[in-house]
């Protein structure tokens, strides 16, 4: 028998244990091992029931994603699922950790499911641009009902065990630390009851309720249209469940599921989303900071500044149960900051996301103060004061004086030089950048900025801490704008140039929106506020943005910016903006030209990719996929296009380079191709092939 699956017998109960670390993915070896063990148990006349369980940290987390796109290896899914489902002896799945995707589908062909209280169950295939291809779309609605099933498969979210019990996905919860014992006891109980075994596929009661109600699906599509925009997988997941309701037989539903699964698997979106799954995990690996690097315990956090960013950053830690001391200069600013935090928590509570007790508990972890001396015992202090170097330096000199030895001193600066900030302290090895994104309590991305002298244990601690507070961390080197904003600046520059050449802002926005961004650059700036970093006294009416600010058109918050906004904050193209643009063009003496959608896209995105290449060649990002993780998590790059560097690889770097050269010849040095782009093309390589020199 295969070593990854073990068969033991506890008198009449056979226990099949899967042991395929780290997450017991259903590789060919695991499938083969389960099949052999279950067949042996069925054939053994002494065995009356079978328990299927996993060793290590989790139940089966799904199919082995690394096998996707390769020639299939036997045994196939159908054979494995059929043997379990048709077993004449009851099969009980014993679930701890996660039962996801193919893992849950396997559990659904078992006759019963027992789970630990902290287990989580889900069908997250949609996040890989797929649908559950092992019967999940046909069996799930038979257990939980159509509406709940639609929710589970299109969100990909994991249901906690308690909820799984309530909706019937799980039959019993096991006492702490006794999963296998509970599953064996459950199997004995079933044997004693001598009831006939029921297969999930035979239970149609919950489907009957939805028959003749196509509006369930139409309403669901309408309600989620914005969320699903651009993605292929959600619609195909919905269609499978619709088919479960409308088809005459279970097999018919399965056939549709299989067909749509194969279509998605062969398509570019799933390839991009699977790439992205591994990119996010790869970003956690830093070649010279190995996994076993010692880390600091972070039990108390200090935040300096309770403004837009400080408040949001503080919420991350309070929500993770870590006490936070927030220091401000003035009482009013502190009160305002704490009030904003409370109202954010209250809003979540009013939508059912938190109980009032949880809100109080989190607020109870926040301790406001007007003196930095209160940071003395903090393990980590994050500075989020005004973006001015002289203020940052003063603050870091104070932190150096006040904080205990070994405390990590972090800055949330969005572009200032972290080395220069660190240089005012006697402990630059403890200084690091933690660049959160606004709103900091919501956005998943955290750029961790490694200074010249930042110690490895400090980096390891911050990467680990990011996970604790639910962020996706990417390591970046010190440079202006780090990874994300440095590339964004390229897009901003081109968007602004385009409108002075003849494109209009609403066209630029439309092209980027259609590409898959949640909004285009002009809408985004209107939302953020056009006066960010703008000073009236220094304003020279030299750019469209300056003129808009001088007119008091500060963006959505003032009812007008590039766009005009109605009382419901709907954006309308503005004749005022049109006129300012036309005045600029007239003054320049050039005549506007018709600019195609294709050029708008290339002008906005190719320079970003080129900048990404420079970031890589300068060693400011470890690998191209890290850049993609930044753009997907921090800037709304559509995950079904993988990220800018992946996208460039798919287009072909030779094509990107050729276009950059063409733009360079006609539009000047903003388009000078990066040396790395030229080199990769000359070598016939992709960004994905690039490795930093050792
Ligand atoms: N296949 C192959 N490798 C996988 C895997 C999978 N299904 N799931 C996780 N891994 C790998 C990760 O790449 C990572 O490898 P690394 O250590 O070399 O980087 C390692 O396992 C640990 O994963 P995480 O770092 O993500 O560990 P966490 O503890 O944070 O999370 C988890 C665990 C919640 C299980 C998370 O890994 C996860 O969500 N996995 C994917 C689950 C999934 O998408 N399942 C559906 C697969 S598609 C399917 O089943 C098709 C079917 O319907 C036919
Ligand atoms: P903000 O102006 O909203 O808040 C700054 C707060 O710091 C104010 O409440 C101010 O009273 C306080 N403050 C100033 N000096 C102080 C001092 N010496 N001691 C204690 N408190 C002090 O600014 P915001 O937007 O929160 O930005 C803070 C930092 O975060 C800046 O470095 C900024 O570049 C960075 N950042 C901002 C982002 C954004 O979208 N707003 C995004 C990412 C980073």
Care to describe what's here?
Its main location: other. One of its GO terms (biological process) is fatty acid beta-oxidation. It holds the Pfam family 3HCDH_N. Helices cover about 50% and strands about 10% of the residues. By secondary structure, it is an alpha/beta fold. The protein has 3 domains: about 5-265, 2-enoyl-CoA Hydratase, Chain A, domain 1; about 300-480, NAD(P)-binding Rossmann-like Domain (Rossmann fold); about 500-590, N-(1-d-carboxylethyl)-l-norvaline Dehydrogenase, domain 2 (Orthogonal Bundle), CATH 1.10.1040.50. An 8-stranded mixed beta sheet has the order 12-11-10-13-14-15-16-17, with helices on both faces. The two termini are about 40 Å apart. Bound molecules: 3-hydroxybutanoyl-coenzyme A and 1,4-dihydronicotinamide adenine dinucleotide. 3-hydroxybutanoyl-coenzyme A binds next to strand 5, helix 3 and helix 13.
| Strand residue content | 5-15%
Q: Give the mean pLDDT.
A: 97
Radius of gyration: 28 Å
The number of helices is: 29
**Residues in helix, %:** 40-55%
Annotated CATH homologous superfamily of the largest domain: 2-enoyl-CoA Hydratase, Chain A, domain 1
Segments where pLDDT lies below 50 for 5+ residues? Answer: none
CATH architecture of the largest domain: Alpha-Beta Complex
Bound molecules: 3-hydroxybutanoyl-coenzyme A, 1,4-dihydronicotinamide adenine dinucleotide
CATH class of the largest domain: Alpha Beta
- Record field, number of beta strands: 19
Shape call: globular
What is the count of distinct domains? 3
N-end to C-end Cα span: 42 Å
CATH topology of the largest domain: 2-enoyl-CoA Hydratase, Chain A, domain 1
For the report, how would you describe the main beta sheet? 8 strands, mixed
Computed structural class: alpha/beta
User: What strand order characterises the main sheet?
Assistant: 12-11-10-13-14-15-16-17
Catalytic activity: a (3S)-3-hydroxyacyl-CoA + NAD(+) = a 3-oxoacyl-CoA + NADH + H(+)
Main location: other
Domain 3-hydroxyacyl-CoA dehydrogenase C-terminal: 481-565, 600-685
GO molecular function, one term: enoyl-CoA hydratase activity
């Amino acid at each position: 028998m295969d070593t990854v699956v073990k068969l033991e017998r506890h008198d009449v109960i056979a226990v099949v244990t899967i042991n395929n670390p780290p997450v017991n993915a259903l590789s060919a070896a695991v499938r083969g091992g389960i099949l052999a063990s279950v067949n042996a148990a069925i054939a053994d006349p002494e065995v009356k029931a079978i328990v299927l369980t996993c060793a290590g940290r989790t139940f089966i987390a799904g199919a082995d994603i690394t096998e996707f796109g390769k020639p299939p290896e036997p045994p196939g899914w159908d054979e494995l699922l059929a043997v379990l489902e048709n077993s004449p002896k009851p099969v009980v799945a014993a679930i701890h950790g996660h039962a996801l995707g193919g893992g849950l589908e396997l559990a659904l062909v078992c006759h019963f499911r027992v789970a630990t209280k902290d287990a989580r169950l889900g069908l997250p295939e949609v996040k890989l641009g797929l649908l559950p291809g092992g019967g999940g779309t046909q069996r799930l609605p038979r257990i939980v009902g159509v509406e709940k099933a639609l929710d589970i498969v299109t969100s990909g979210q994991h249901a906690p065990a308690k909820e799984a019990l309530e909706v019937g996905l799980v039959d019993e919860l096991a006492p702490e630390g006794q999963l296998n014992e509970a599953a064996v006891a459950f199997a004995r109980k079933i044997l004693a009851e001598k009831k006939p075994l029921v297969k999930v596929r035979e239970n149609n009661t919950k489907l009957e309720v939805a028959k003749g109600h196509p509006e369930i699906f139409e309403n669901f599509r309408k309600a989620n249209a914005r969320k699903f925009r651009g993605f292929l997988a959600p619609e195909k997941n919905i269609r499978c469940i619709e088919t479960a309701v409308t088809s005459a037989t279970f097999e018919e539903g399965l056939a549709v599921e299989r067909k749509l699964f194969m279509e998605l698997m062969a398509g570019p979106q799933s390839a991009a989303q699977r790439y992205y799954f591994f990119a996010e995990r790869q970003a956690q690996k830093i070649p010279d900071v190995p996994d076993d690097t010692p880390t600091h315990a972070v039990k108390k956090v200090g935040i300096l500044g309770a403004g837009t960013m400080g408040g949001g950053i503080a919420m991350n830690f309070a929500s993770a149960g870590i006490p936070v001391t927030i220091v401000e200069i003035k009482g009013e600013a502190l009160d305002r900051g704490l009030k904003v935090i409370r109202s954010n928590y209250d809003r979540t509570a009013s939508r059912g996301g938190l109980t009032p007790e949880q809100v109080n508990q989190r607020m109870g972890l926040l301790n406001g103060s007007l003196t930095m001396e209160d940071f003395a015992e903090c393990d980590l202090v994050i500075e989020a004061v005004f973006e001015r170097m002289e203020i940052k330096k003063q603050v870091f000199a104070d932190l150096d004086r006040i904080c205990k030895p070994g405390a990590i001193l972090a800055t949330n600066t969005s572009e200032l030089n972290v080395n220069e900030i660190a240089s005012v302290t006697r402990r630059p090895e403890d200084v690091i950048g933690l660049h959160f994104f606004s709103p900091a309590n919501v956005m998943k991305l955290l750029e961790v900025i490694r200074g010249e002298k930042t110690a490895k244990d400090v980096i390891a601690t911050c990467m680990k801490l990011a996970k604790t507070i639910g962020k996706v961390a990417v390591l970046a080197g010190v440079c202006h704008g780090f990874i994300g904003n440095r590339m964004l600046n390229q897009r901003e520059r081109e968007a602004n140039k385009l409108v002075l050449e003849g494109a209009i802002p609403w066209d630029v926005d439309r092209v980027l929106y259609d590409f898959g961004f949640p909004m285009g650059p002009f809408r985004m700036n209107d939302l953020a506020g056009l006066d960010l970093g703008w000073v009236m006294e220094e304003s020279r009416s030299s750019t469209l943005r300056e003129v808009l600010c001088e007119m008091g058109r500060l963006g959505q918050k003032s009812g007008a910016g590039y766009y005009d906004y109605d009382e419901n904050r709907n954006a309308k193209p503005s004749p005022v903006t049109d006129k300012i643009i036309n005045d600029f063009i007239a003054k320049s003496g050039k005549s506007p030209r018709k600019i195609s959608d294709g050029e708008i896209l290339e002008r906005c995105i190719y320079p970003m990719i080129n900048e990404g290449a420079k970031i890589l060649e300068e060693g400011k990002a470890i690998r191209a996929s890290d850049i993609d993780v930044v753009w997907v998590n921090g800037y709304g790059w559509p995950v079904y296009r993988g990220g800018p560097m992946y996208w460039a690889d798919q287009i072909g770097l030779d094509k990107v380079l050729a276009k950059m050269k063409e733009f360079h010849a006609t539009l000047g040095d903003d388009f000078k191709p990066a040396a790395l782009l030229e080199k990769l093309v000359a070598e016939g390589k992709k960004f994905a092939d690039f490795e930093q020199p050792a």
